[in-house]
Records
---
Amino acid sequence: MSFPAFPTRKLTDAEIQQYRDDGVIMIKGAIDRNWLDLIEAGLEQGRGDMSLLGRFMSRKVGGYQMDIFLWKRIDQIRDAIYYGPFARWAQQLMGAKEVRFFYDQMFVKEPGTDAPTPWHQDLSFWPIRGEQICSFWIPLDPVTKENSGLLYVRGSHKWPQRFKAISPDYVAAIIDEKMDDIPDINAAPEKYDLVDWNMEPGDILMFHPLTLHGSYGNASRTRRRRALALRWTGDDVTYQPSAKRMPVHFRHESAVGGPLRGAAFPRILPDCDPAERALRARPEKPMPAKMVGSLLDNARAAIRLKLSGVDSRALKQTWGKPTQG
Ligand SMILES: O=C(O)CCC(=O)C(=O)O
């Protein structure tokens, strides 16, 4: 068997066209049980042993557990990324030759948590730019709108606006006050082409980094909602950090304005870079100096936003209980 594994099937031309038109597609029954079990085992390990960053991200929002870069410390997640079928799908979807892994993110909402994921575009706060970027969202539990299935604004990846990045914990450091305010979509849903799916474990969402998306809290009393997002980049992507974009706390050699390079963003296709992979032989921790730098940036950003009249509380959105249908 060769790795990364080949998916159960290729994406059809119609699915790729739909991704280009709508900015999101849902593929039913895409993931074999063995890969799903591997991811679930890794995610459960991550839930029980959160990183410092994850604890920081999850501190303000009761019942909403988030963490990133799990693959740096959890073998099952790393193996799913290096050996699973995901990189080949990303390659086909993006039409790319080279595929690099950008990062993973865990999103878990406990039953009864009312914490939404505010509407946002991912690319507005990512430290990369390019056309060939996509995310896969992999639920480990059955999801509906009631227990926090994702919602998308169809076609919004083609809108000209770049919206202020509103994260679930309202992190000031990634809010760029020069960007547009996100409209209060749920206050006037009839104005938007909203789309969502009921999903089962094994289904996968593939979406463009500019497609507006978000989710309600988990109104179910019994059903936890666990998901892992995997982010991929292709040939044209460059490293474009800024004080108002998500910091990367792991080692890499990408020059500003240049292609992604190094072990934080490992190359998976057309083949692995042995030097990058060797660096992941042992679990890796984020660099403490970079973490402290991020905390200071965040404090400075909160002051800057207040002084410039952007109060992060004013950016809160209408998210009541989901309406069915
Ligand atoms: O799971 C969620 O509620 C949020 C997912 C998300 O925003 C993402 O994967 O980019």
---
Amino acid sequence: MLFKLPPAPDLTSTGNNTFQPDNLIDRDLSTAWSEGVPGYSGEWIELHLDQPMYVGFVGIVSGYTKSSSTYSENGRPGTVTVEMYEEDGVFTETVVLEDIPWKEIENGTLFTLVQTLYESGMGIETDRVRLRFDDVYPGDTYEDLCVSELFVAGWRWE
Ligand SMILES: [Ca+2]
Ligand SMILES: [Ca+2]
């Protein structure tokens, strides 16, 4: 992979390895990243790329898609702002995601369940991509925002 996820301060302080950021890139719908902090406010994920590249696609599989209960009990992203740090500024795009019904999740795959946050044939040259969760579909039981998968695709000019 061309990117890594730095440990988020919020996560390391919980000491809970079950919801580590690596769960976002294991291509496994039964594992998720969870922010693990009471309430919903100011959640984010940030990717640091090894080298700057032209990022042309950013997408996520929302929620903890392991089972119908993990999906409904935990929060799902609602409004997400993508921030890509460029040499001379920050590109931002805000997307309102659909709260996909469990029936569709159950019958879906990694690729059908990805919701697009950013897509462009031009790409944005960046080495830092941050997702800011501005709004959340709340969970029935927990105040934990969950994301099961994150996809970032891009290219480099050699
Ligand atoms: Ca996963
Ligand atoms: Ca929370």
